[in-house]
Write a structure and sequence with these properties.
By secondary structure, the protein is of the alpha/beta class. Helix content is 31%, strand content 18%. The protein has a 7-stranded mixed beta sheet with strand order 1-3-2-4-5-6-7, with helices on both faces. α4 links the parallel β6 (156-162) and β7 (186-192). The longest helix is centred in the middle third of the chain and has 17 residues, at 77-93. Residues 1-6 have low confidence and may be disordered.
């Protein structure tokens, strides 16, 4: 697996302009872009291009508090984090790759950020892959149908989690999956009984199946 041209982000896999898909893969709390490279390797799809952004300032975390806190409790870092994800997407779009060939993927805090970005964006992305993640905000947050909901019609969205995960409650994963389903996305939800905060082989396989289908 080779790196592409110099970039503010870690770029792996094929050339972005010729790859069937470009996957923006977002790390979790206390991690980095290099940590996410293991998931690129586990997918075993060298024909794809991967863009791996880092949290601002090398902090390792995208926002300071839990994802279930009031949004204000994670500002201004949350807005800064979303701006980094937007810049990552823009770096791909500027190379002539349409949004329909871009996939947002992440694990844990990165998955929350990926889901939140797609929920706020007016773009039709190729897919959303949320490994143990949820929309950001308190459980009681009401998510109105966005003006850009038409862009989400039929968009594949994978939400996975663990029934006994110590960081991301399964009911939050399920609730977010239901929000995207209500907005018209083609949602696949997988919750297993493990208590480990990891991406299982089953979750990798599910993501790979989606990526192959839309490539």
């Amino acid at each position: 697996m080779t790196s592409s041209k110099p970039s503010p982000y870690l770029c792996l896999g094929s050339d972005q302009q010729s790859a069937p898909l470009v996957v923006v893969m977002i790390h979790g709390r206390g991690r980095s872009s290099s940590y996410m490279a293991q998931y690129v390797e586990r997918l075993k799809m060298p024909e794809l291009a991967f863009v791996l952004p880092d949290a601002p300032g090398g902090a390792g975390s995208w926002y300071p508090n839990g994802f279930l806190m009031d949004l204000d409790a994670n500002e201004p870092q949350l807005s800064e984090a979303l701006a980094v994800i937007e810049a990552s997407v823009q770096s791909v779009l500027s190379g002539g790759v349409p949004a329909e060939r871009i996939v947002l993927a992440g694990f844990s805090q990165g998955a929350c950020l990926a889901a939140e970005h797609v929920a706020r964006s007016a773009r039709r992305y190729g897919a959303l892959i949320s490994w143990t993640g949820s929309l950001i905000g308190p459980r009681e947050t009401k998510r109105a149908r966005p003006a850009h909901a038409a862009a989400l019609q039929g968009m594949p969205a994978l939400f996975t989690g663990a029934r006994h995960d110590p960081w991301v409650p399964a009911d939050c994963v399920e609730s977010s999956a239901n929000v995207f389903r209500r907005w018209g996305a083609q949602v696949e939800l997988f919750i297993d009984d493990r208590d480990q905060h990891v991406v299982s082989d089953d979750e990798i396989a599910m993501a790979k199946k989606i990526l192959k289908r839309i490539s």
